[in-house]
Amino acid sequence: MAQPSPPGLLPTEIAFLCEMELVTIIPRERLSSLHLLAGATPPLRPPQRTALPLWLALLLKKQRRADIAPPPWLHPHSLQSILEQETAEANRYAFTNAQPLPQPEERKDAWDVDTSDREIQPTPPFANENTASGSAEHLPYHWLSIAQILLANASDDIVEPESVRRLLRDLREVRAAKVRAGMNVLDAGAGVRMNGVGALELGEARGFVTGVVDGLRKIGAAREAQGREEGEERREGLAQGEGSEDEDML
């Protein structure tokens, strides 16, 4: 009998969604436009860079028909800078902010798609954060999944991949510790600020967070039940005391 899946998305499901992110490729040969469900891709003309969905970029990389240009944040210098921000005392209990999202009318898609006479633009979290024009100072929503996939399939396109792996491991540990530390404020009735937390981090922390919240609910319910019982006992004691006074007066 199959075991029930935990609540939320599994890491494999998050990685599947992550493959819809746009990345920049450098084609090695010409390729005509491909008509996909979301629309037509731009034709490939070396050495002109083009943004394509990650799954298609990986396929072209496997066929040696294109190289993948890693996003700016996946550079050792960028990751080191982000790690220093994460470990700074000012950000002790906060995550570094994600890349600001442009307004819908300002957002321009590097992979322009025209379906049914209207332009389809990417929406958060798919907002060109992992293309070559992305920010080097912010981690995108799918940063961990993107990094794992690119290191596994296109490590030769990444600058100093071993240093990148080490920095990613440090970043993951630091941010996971912040998530665990944030659970300490739940008992006081406060919330946990999850701004800047990535998709895979949320998926990994979901079981831990929901377990803590469920435990706090049970503790709160037990306290309320105990308070009601003590209140009833006090009221019964007062009623008995008043009855005894009436008998003494008689």
Question: Which structural traits does this protein have?
Answer:
single chain, 7 strands, 250 residues, mainly alpha, 6 helices, 45% helix, two-stranded antiparallel sheet, three-stranded antiparallel beta sheet
Account of the protein in words:
The radius of gyration is 27 Å and the shape is elongated. The termini are far apart. Helix 3 runs parallel beside helix 5 and helix 5 packs parallel to helix 6. The strands form three sheets. Strands 4-1-5 form a three-stranded antiparallel beta sheet. It is built from six helices and seven strands. The protein has 250 residues and is mainly α. The longest helix is centred in the last third of the chain and has 51 residues.
Question: Span from first to last CA?
Answer: 74 Å
Which residue ranges are poorly predicted, with pLDDT under 50 across at least 5 consecutive positions? 106-120
How would you classify the helix and strand content by structural class? Answer: mainly alpha
Total of helices: 6
Morphology = elongated
Q: Count all strands and give the number.
A: 7
Element-by-element helix/strand order: HEEEEHEHEEHHH
Question: Sheet bearing the most strands, described?
Answer: 3 strands, antiparallel
Strand content: 5-15%
Q: From the alpha carbons, calculate the radius of gyration and give it in angstroms.
A: 27 Å
